[in-house]
Write a structure and sequence with these properties.
The complex is a heterodimer of chains A (about 280) and B (about 325). Chain A has nine helices and eleven strands. Chain A is of the alpha/beta class and about 280 residues long. Chain B is mostly helical and about 325 residues long. The chains are: A alpha/beta (about 280), B mainly alpha (about 325). The interface between A and B is medium-sized, with 33 and 24 residues.
Chain lengths: ~280, ~325
């Protein structure tokens, strides 16, 4: 896979993003290496989704340098950026009446001119992507008749159909049952390790992130507070510092990677009980 | 099937009326005008005048206006991703109404390429209103669709208020203004047909080229951007194209309601949401619908006429409700 001179396919330095004049990302540094699955974890509101939206340029950044496959994404037109970077958004509202194949074919948009329809090659690429996500059997069914998990697989197929070297996923497993979680993350990490794609995935579940990511970036309050392999990053002190939660860490019997186990009855943060005035 | 229905509607529109003309004579009158064809004249002379100078321009104008409104309605619904959108939503109607009212009250008369002031002022009013709505909805480089709709509603209210105030000053003109506002194809001429054709053609070409992109836009704007659509540029192109087509249609026919809202929904219920099918079929059925509505408007209390806008709403609304009931649960 083609990479930049310093061996990264995507690099971000001092990325800053503002919403209505309030800064929510205060200088983020990220580097994605070729063939890597990079996880982004952090508490709610730490800026994970904002990073994804800034990278895919649906959100303007207020400062910092971004470099995707040696190009500046701000200088790229929408189709050219979409050829380098495919996004699986957090919640995908899909339009009623379109089939799974229709939606998957929408991933060919950056390669098609205005009047041009999808050709046999495009259909072949889309069907291949549906096959990879185990969704080919409902290719011709309307997406509004599919379950949430099936729809998410179709969205992943659409992202694969873009044939972009970088895959950016915002909580791709949020609405999936455990079987679909494994199917999706196996597929994505397999693609990365075959050096077909490099992947950045926002993952809420720390144990899942630990099993599938080569490296993990921890965000808190719009800053990177830790970066490293799951062994280096996922430990009880970090989780207590960032999340304010007490957990036990054990070793996964198969992968030997950290597994996070919550300890009931140890919540010490803001008082969540009902105040007396409201009872 | 759609083309057959359009042809049947054209035939009905040309044969029916205050003077009934048999289909065989109609075809021979039409054929006699074709180059290189000689047909022995066997019909009263005034039939030829009726067909050629009155009914043909009227039926053609009805089909052009119907096609333009339905097509523009489908485009607005797609760009704004709002099922309630119609060609008049973001200010075209109120702007055109105000422009036309001003023209009726204008103390001076002038003409421009065989056009009276009314269509010119209506067109300018419509484009001004849309431009103001679009520009006031613009935040930085983006035009959020919700803001655009709300800005359109605000501009429409403003223009309507001024228009109502002018009505008070209108006096004897009020009846003329009103019949224009309700929409009428009475007084259709070849000039109006020639005037509308280029606008409809440009709008259709621009929007049809974006058929697949309109499908992608249905994902939502953020996802469309991420799969490679330059969302803001596409939105602006399509809104400008649809507004110009609508403004031109309104300037020659007044405010004919309901076609632009309902025809695209009828197509969607039967043929699904693919804009590459929806757009051309909206044109076909919009044309058919308005020819038939106009036929009713000019024959039902013949020799007098009722405004065609009254017919479109009166016939269209119950039919649409029926379709909605039948499609309940599978549509929207």
């Amino acid at each position: 896979m083609r990479g930049t001179t310093d061996g990264t396919v995507l690099e971000v330095q001092q990325l800053r993003v503002e919403y209505d004049g309030r800064e929510v990302l205060h200088g983020i540094d990220l580097a994605l290496r070729p063939g890597e699955v990079l996880g982004i974890v952090g508490p709610n509101g730490s800026g994970k989704s904002t990073v994804v939206r800034a990278l895919s340029h649906v959100l303007a950044s207020s400062g910092g340098v971004m470099c995707i496959m040696d190009r500046d994404p701000k200088a790229l037109k929408a189709p050219d950026l979409a050829k380098l970077l495919a996004v699986v958004p957090q919640s995908s509202v899909l339009p009623d009446g379109f089939t799974a194949l229709d939606v998957t074919l929408m991933g060919r948009t950056p390669y098609l001119r205005l009047l041009q329809g999808e050709g046999p090659d495009d259909v072949r690429i889309a069907r291949q992507a549906l096959l990879q996500t185990a969704s080919l059997q409902f290719a011709d069914r309307p997406v509004n008749e599919l379950s949430g998990g099936e729809r998410q697989l179709v969205v992943v197929a659409r992202a694969l159909t873009q044939q972009a070297p970088i895959l950016l996923m915002d909580e791709p497993t949020a609405h999936l049952d455990i079987n679909h979680q494994i199917a999706l993350l196996d597929l994505v990490s397999g693609l990365a390790h075959d050096h077909e794609r490099s992947v950045i995935a926002v993952i809420h579940d720390l144990t899942l992130a630990s099993q599938y990511c080569d490296r993990i970036v921890v965000l808190n309050n719009g800053r990177v507070v830790a970066t490293g392999t799951p062994h280096e990053v996922i430990h009880a002190d970090m989780i207590e510092a960032v999340y304010g939660a007490q957990v036990e860490i054990i070793e996964h019997p198969v992968t030997k990677r950290p597994v996070v186990i919550p300890v009931p009855g140890t919540y010490r943060g803001r008082d969540l009980s009902v105040p007396p005035c409201c009872v | 099937m759609g083309a057959g229905m359009l042809l049947a509607a054209l035939g009905l529109g040309l044969t029916w009326g205050a003077a009934g003309i048999p289909l065989s004579d109609l075809l021979r009158i039409l054929a006699s005008r074709a180059p290189g064809v000689t047909v022995e004249q066997s019909w009263p002379m005034h039939w030829e005048r009726i067909v050629w100078d009155i009914r043909l321009p009227r039926v053609l104008l009805a089909s052009l206006v119907g096609a333009t409104l339905a097509f523009a309605g489908a485009t607005y619904q797609g760009v704004l991703r709002n099922p309630l959108a119609d060609p008049y939503l973001i200010g075209v109607a109120a702007g055109a109404g105000l422009g036309a009212t001003l023209a009726f009250l204008l103390p001076v008369q002038f003409s421009f390429y065989a056009l009276s002031p009314v269509p010119i002022f209506a067109f300018l009013g419509a484009m001004t209103a849309v431009t103001i709505a679009y520009r006031s909805a613009k935040i930085g480089m983006k035009v959020p669709t919700t803001t655009l709709i709300l800005a359109g509603v605000a501009i429409s209210s403003l223009a309507s208020a001024v228009m109502l105030f002018l009505f008070m000053l209108a006096g004897d003109n009020l009846r003329t203004i009103f019949s224009w506002i309700m929409g009428s194809l009475n007084g259709s001429t070849w000039d109006r047909v020639y005037l509308l054709v280029p606008y409809t053609a440009v709008m259709a070409l621009v929007v049809l080229a974006h058929g697949r992109v309109l499908n992608v836009l249905q994902l939502n704007e953020e996802q469309a951007q991420q799969v490679g659509v330059d969302v803001e540029r596409v939105k602006m192109t399509l809104i400008v194209a649809a507004s110009i087509g609508t403004a031109a249609a309104v300037s020659v026919s007044g405010l004919i309601g309901f076609v632009g809202l309902v025809v695209p929904h009828m197509i969607r219920m039967v043929w699904g949401p693919d804009y590459r099918v929806l757009l051309p079929l909206s044109m076909l059925y919009g044309a058919t619908f308005l020819i038939l509505a106009d036929l009713i408007a000019r024959t039902i209390i013949s020799p007098a006429e009722i405004p065609v806008g009254v017919v479109t709403a009166f016939c269209g609304a119950p039919f649409f409700l029926l379709l909605l009931r039948r499609a309940r649960g599978t549509y929207l």
